[in-house]
User: Fold these one by one.
Assistant:
Number 1:
Amino acid sequence: MSKRIATQGRLIDRSRALTFTFNGRDMRGHPGDTLASALLANDQMLVGRSFKYHRPRGIVASGAEEPNALVNLGTGPSFEPNQRATTTELFDRLKARSQNHWPSLEFDIGAINARLSRLLPAGFYYKTFLRPRAFWKHVYEPIIRQSAGLGQAPKDRDCDTYEYFYATTDIVVVGGGIAGLLTARSAAQSGAQVLVLEQTAHLGGRTPVDGGTVDGQPASAFIDALLEELRAMANVTMRSRCMGAGIYDHGFVLGYERLTDHDPDAAGPRHRLWRIRAKQVITATGAIERPLAFAGNDLPGVMLASAMRDYLINYGVMVGQRVIVATNNDDAYRTAIALKEAGADVLRILDARDSGGGPLMQKARELGIRIDCGRAIGKVRGGKRVKKVKICAQNSSGGALEEVSCDAVAMSGGWSPVVHLWSHCGGKLLWDDGAAHFRPDPARPPTGADGNGFVSTAGAAHGDFALGDIVAQAHEAGRKAAQAIGMKPKKHDAPIAAETREARLLPVWLMPAGANIGLRSKAWLDYQNDVKVSDVELAAREGYESVEHTKRYTTLGMATDQGKLSNINGLATLANSLGTPIPSVGTTTFRPPYTPISMGAIAGEARDAIFQPLRCTPIHHWHEAHDAAWEPVGHWRRPYTYPRADEAHADAVAREIKNVRQAVGLLDASTLGKLIVKGPDAGKFLDMLYTNMMSTLQPGRCRYGLMCNENGFLIDDGVVARLDEQSFLCHTTSGGADQIHAHMEEWLQTEWWDWQVYVANATEQFAQIAVVGPKARKLLEKLGGMDLSAETLPLMAWAEGEIAGIRARVFRISFSGELSFEIAVPASQGLALWTALIEAGREFGVMPYGTEALHVMRAEKGFIMIGDETDGTVIPQDLGLDWAISKKKEDYLGKRAQQRTHMASPDRWKLVGLETTDGTVLPEGAYAVGEGLNANGQRVTQGRVTSTYYSPTLERGIAMGLVLHGPERMGEVLEFPGTDGQVYHAKIVDPVFYDKEGTKQNV
Amino acid sequence: MSEPVSALNHAGFDGLAKVTECGLHGMITLRGDLAARAVKAAATGASGVKMPGPNEVQSKGDNALCWMSPDELLVICDYKDVRQVLDKMHKSLGAAHALAVDMSDARTMFCVTGSSARDVMAKLTPADLSPATFGPGQIRRSRLAQIPAAFWLEDDQSFRIICFRSVAQYAFDLLCTAAGAGSDVGYFSAAPIRPT
């Protein structure tokens, strides 16, 4: 059984106990435990069911590479699926549940899949669910979703907060093990600013577990002193619990810091996403031990040798009392020795090598451990935990020589450098035949904009495994990185580590080497996605030669662990099946993030009130206090209408319109774009930007203008006021201000760079209030300050002065057809003017009105709206706006495009008014249908509705639309099928429904 | 005559850093050839402040000149003096091609102060805030999360930030969130400034 022992446990605090639950069962652990070590201390070997066959699974690793021990963590708003027990630090009252089991972990119905495994081979989905087609969505997928899959999706809102942090530094070191720390030191000694990212809670890596001597001190003492030294260095920052998640172009490094996962009650954000810019990056990401592929290698109790050593030394947990160690290298002997010294019974070391290992083997033998060379595990037996091991010769097909009872198996298939981060941005790999692993090729690093490498590697991630090599290379790597950014390293001696000679590893991709098909179909490569040796072999037989195709066909390495344990074993198996060398098969692509990061961290602070910027006018809070219903316009919120008490929105809109038409209304028009264009060439510039002539506009006057892009399509409209000889104020649509500003700057900076024009976006400088209706002048005269008579300020004129004691510009422009004044005042006094107008207007029956009333009134007048009548494919000519297109000008943006045959075609749909025959309202976006079918077999269309409203003024539905030959078909009735099954009939009429002569606005 | 009111009317927050909306300031956008004598004279003459170099701020008392782009300066003065300063600039510019326009109401200014001010700001802006590259006298036009913003350091622990008025509430909420309890990064505040 697995239990906590009285000795060891360098990371745990035995003086305090923590309680937690697993599947509702109470358990105890200590501060410093991971959930995995605490589960093992409570003899919880079975931690989950596998993805496809629902096989019982236990903890196999001790770090980020763990494929099996994924749990549902927390409840309600803090619930999160697929959390790795090996990287989850234990905290008091932690609640974890195992995944992919039904009805319970101990008894799982889905385990029947394991019996059917011969019917569920690689590519099963592709082979089985192809036909009949309709079955996929309605039959197959729902069943598969029920039976496969790991964690559940959270149902509640996440209760935690997240944030970003941007850092710019000289050198980032990913990995805080001995190599990373030494690299950081030598880089910092060379004068560089260094940031070290360590994914675990502890700096120092696995050297304290593996032991050794550096500069005459035990390795762990050396590391403690080194940490002390680094902490005192002003140019070194070390962040633990902060994973280097990805390396991208231009020295961009993503860090994922877990702030409160280990202490959920603490204040502050849960995760912090570091967005780092570095000149050089050093990956000191260590190495991952590989499992051995033997039958039953997925049973709970079969564990990586290094993990078993970690649990013992770091957490004081002895995973088994009677242990068998299977290995192809010397490192696993360290586990056997540690277990033996801690009191476990190490029954056998099965060393696949005929000649065995070096001095470590000698030491194990001296401790009295039986070592069988040239031996292998034929099969592990047991149900929910290891019971027996059948031992055979490595060079056999699996015929058992003996069977030994045991309760745990430690395995080691050698080590693979963690090359992920090196590879993220294009670093290339070398196959190292001796060590049987891929390691970074220093000659082909990820390159920056200057063509030079900006990532280098240190320590085990570099491919060095002997402590002496690691410390020497890491020291040098730091110096080199500093040199690469122009530092001049001073001479500092590299540390020297005592060597432990290790014998050469024997590549073992299958155990035993000639395992029969029965064993191969029980030898797991990818634990998380349930891919076995036999699956990869089948894929090879079926013609999948590319490792990328095999990966997708078998799902090897496609689970949440991204194949950290399975990749090399899988591609070696593929290479063997294809009879090609491993390097010619190559690896799959390594993509960030290194391990999954939370969606919350990616979103950062952007949630709730700061999910998105909300633009508020200076009068926003008044609208809010008066129960405005909002309409989003860009990032602005504009009042749609101001419903009273129980008033329906439609009724409120009708009331507001009638009030404007009969008395006076106020509109907050502050969101209108206001661009100031100034310079000797300003007139010439605006003549190019607008379709009509602007240079002839007199100071003090306004002119409506249309703006097209170079393809001729209408992009914006608005009123231009000439401020003085050289200055114009261009009003744009509310949503268009920023784009049109950018549009102007683009033309000025790229095409007409020699024109003397400056543009400034003064949109937010002014609050703008439209005072509209027959009583508008009376209201303004009551406030006083300016002569606003028709003689002094006629339609399409503007004047500067004071209204209610506030400096103002008054524009006599009308978008409603009524007498209308738009008053611009400094934004800081906008609310003051608004409230003054509301107060003074009481006797005239003033009411605020919203955007819907604005829309209806402009439609009653036949005025177009950018975004309604236009959609990026409409030219001014389509809208009957030929009067606003200058014939005199030699050129304007869009002119040439509008002369192209398709643009000039008489068959373009043109703007008309539409009046339903029965007074109802046409559905939005409805199409007018014609006779027959088109080439696609669809009903022929001959027009569409662009704006449609109920007009309270006319007491009927009115609409505008684009219709084929529309203006020539006045009086004709068109059919508009609605999505409600009804067919609407509407007559083609003039688009101006109200006050065609324009007498009401011109008073 | 009503009193002008800034977007958040001096709202404040005390967290890892002190966040304050610091009321209305006179702000004049001056676009022109920054090497032209008339433009330089207009800027320096009206403000009494020396001409800043690229990415720099020069200040004297309440007045400041901020370099905003190769052809744009921001002239900062007292809010009530802005018309006077603008008139002075127009006179000084004469016929020179330039655009000087009052933007005082278009913007909101914040102060973020305290030993963690850099850490708070570095949660929101991608600009390099390392003391070695960004110190008092430097200005950056960058962004705070999703909005454009410009900021400079008055002293090593005091940021001045300007953003558009319409997003003042968003900017304030952002800064308060970044300065929230328990979220200290300790990246800049823990590390002493490197001796150069």
Note: Helices of chain B lie at 37-47, 82-93, 117-121, 168-178.
Number 2:
Amino acid sequence: MRFTIAREKLQEGLSAVTAAVPTKTTLPVLANILLETTDKGIRLSGTDLDIAVSTEVLADVETQGSITIPAKKLAEIARELPSAPVKMSSAGEQKVTLECGRSRFKLLGLPRDEFPSFPTVRFNESWRVRSGDLQKLIGHTAFAASTEESRPILNGVLWELRPERMRMVATNGHRLSKMELPITSEGAPSGDLIVPPKALEQIRKLFPAEEDLEIARGDNHLAFRSPFTSVFTRLIEGPYPNYEQVIPKDNDRVALADKNVLAQSLRRMSIIASDQTHRIRLAFNAGMLKLGVQTPDLGEAQDEVPINYEGDPLEIGFNANYLIEILRYMPTDEVRLTFKAAERAATIEPEGWKDDARYLGLVMPLKLID
Amino acid sequence: MHQIAILASAVVDQIAAGEVVERPASVVKELVENALDADARFIEIVIEDGGRSRIRVADDGFGMRREDALLAMRRHATSKIRDASDLVGVSSFGFRGEALPAIASVSEMEIETSANGGGGTLVRAEGGEIIEVRDAARRTGTTVTVSRLFYNSPSRQRFLRSARSEWRAIADLIASTAILRRSVRVLVSHEGREVMNLPAAPSVRARVAALWGAQFADRLVDVDDVRGEVHVTGLVERPSDVGTAARRIHVVVNGRAIRDGGMVRAAEAAYRSTIPAGTRPSVLLDITVPADAVDVNVHPAKVEVRFRDRWLVERAVESAVRRALGSPRSAASIGVPAFWAVPKIAFSPVDVEVLQGPEDASPLLGGSVTAVDIVMPERNREEAIPVPPLRQLRHTYIMFEREDGVVFIDQHSAHERVLYERFMHALEHGDAASQRLLFPLTLHVGPQEGDAFEEHREMFERLGYEIEGFGGHTLLVQSVPAPHPRFDAERCLRESLDALTGSRLPGTASRHEKLAATVACKAAIKAGDSMSDGEMRSLFSALARTVLPAHDVHGRSTVVHLPWDEIERRFGRR
């Protein structure tokens, strides 16, 4: 194998792939990236077995071939090289020579056949989605997924694809976030995919917003493809819980509040809230929200926030962190909160959002001490 | 018809001997107590054949004049009290005046005594009959020799056990007396060999070290606490050492060694949740109560006493021991720590009242509050605990450096302890945080688990579980506790029900303890869980704020201390 590549191109390819390379692994070859020559240049691939990223960059190929080399070292070298053409060649299966200007490196690699093969996904039945739309959905929902291993299904983000819309939902069983966007897809099938948030996060960062992505489903994998780069991720199996059923439709107590004022007050209160439960108390009264917190070993605090609230007074307890987090993702300055009762789900939505997307956050209450 | 007759005094003495003198050890006890009552500074005890053939107790006390020595052989002759009013608050060991004649009636006794040095008296008696009285030369003090015990009482003699087991009883008795009167030098020989040489000791700990070895003394933690009029001091075994050596029990009330199961049980109650069930700690307690709060004249050998308010004293004992076990010094130690070195402690002193919670806290949302209003309690515990840099090892232990060495914390045990105390608090006050679930959990349980749930239903609710029995054996869980972010509510409930199967403990307190311990164990982070820096810090300060930080609910150590001495020794620096 022998090729010459511009240093910038090499770096571009490496930066796309190295995010998928695990920092700690029991399988040594996973710390390497796979280099393969193609018709137009070279293909770089990296994987942690959950996610695989593969990208093609232009290069001047003299002789065909492939090898794996340590990802981290190659990325560090590429960063420090002068801006000049980089010549790479491998004689045997395990040694790579890299020359750039007067610098010269020899790196030990591992044979190509030790590198795991990528899942095969056929793109004949695929969806087409604009990367920017995907970024928006991921950015507003993935945070709410569970990080606990007790219910693996909740570790994923539900992605519903329908002919006229797509929607993402994530929850940890205590709070939920949901966003949907209208789309126009030509004859693509409906699909419900449960995707690990880590893969979605990589996709959000990897593809430019204006790019169109092709998405296809394999046996238990999902593939994302742009003209030069492909990402494969494992899918989480199983039916997602029926979230529609738990989103309240009859919450009749409505409060409108300034998002930033409310979030600031919540952050103040959470200083005194328990480290474990983050329990705070909200008391809604006409025109005024009173916040209170009382932690046995620590102390107590109160605050007041003016709000627009009509209806019977309501006292309700929450994990302050859940509220603070969902408010952070609210796209508008004003938010709309709805309630039914102290033990029922509360919803938070943007108020006056000029956007064709629809966004909803839901938080389950914490029991209050009497 | 049998005629009724007044018994001859020799017979009366023999009957009394049955109460006071059961075995050689009781003879030793009476004689040693007499010596102590005579203000002896030095007592020499010689035992032969387990006390069956000879017991000799010599002291340097104030001795007796001839008339007194003869009188002492008669029943109810005593120098220690004069009339019935002296009985209240009696402080001498003996006072009933029945010991010497009783012993004399069943043995050959020889008393050699002198009250002023030089000119003394020797009295010899056989079966209670004085057969010889003559002058003898002796230093001030008394020597009593009892030979051929029970020679004239074959029924008793038959009940004597082997020399070995009689000797063991004597040794226990001497030990208990030696702890009690540690300013007295005691020399004991058995079968002609010196077996104990106890110099006057400055402290109980030093006496214990002389008796049973420095290593044993080192496994004991000091107790010293006052509760109302009751003062409890002593030494109790470190929970991590319990069950690994012979158990020693020693209870003293107002300077008198007694047998009292209640006090021992009260001390053991303080160990609850720190040692495995079935193991019992060594306990040496010295309890001081006002003289009128205790009646010592209820047993001829005075080994039992009656308290005016037993419950009050037991409470004091339990809280004193619990307080002692709460000190970091009660944590397990690696290697052999320097005997007297009291470590400088990173934990701030642990307050027993921590779990009480603010009872008169101001109502949360009452009154008109302007802007932010933060009220801190007087003692700010959050600030009071400085957290050293922590490091997680093998995803199982947390290590940190302290002035006197390196300390390891077992993360699971530590978290278990923290949660246990929190759950106990929740069970008593019902204020656990309860997170409502978006998707209720459905649990299918077996009939036994179902029964266990019904049995503990209300307590699970107090912990924060909101569960609807769904008929049959399906439980619908609507809310779960939220003790920490990694809590797996379903697994915890399932495993706790499994563990509680078939348990029907009497009493709310023990049921609370069992449930809290079970749930804490299931809810705590596991060995192998990686912890963030923040999580470790928060566990550290939560542990330091618990009442018993050094032990988990199964009696394992949560904290192990590796002293610098040990490390330096291994590196050959000392």
Note: Helices of chain A lie at 7-18, 71-80, 131-141, 197-206, 243-246, 259-272, 320-329.
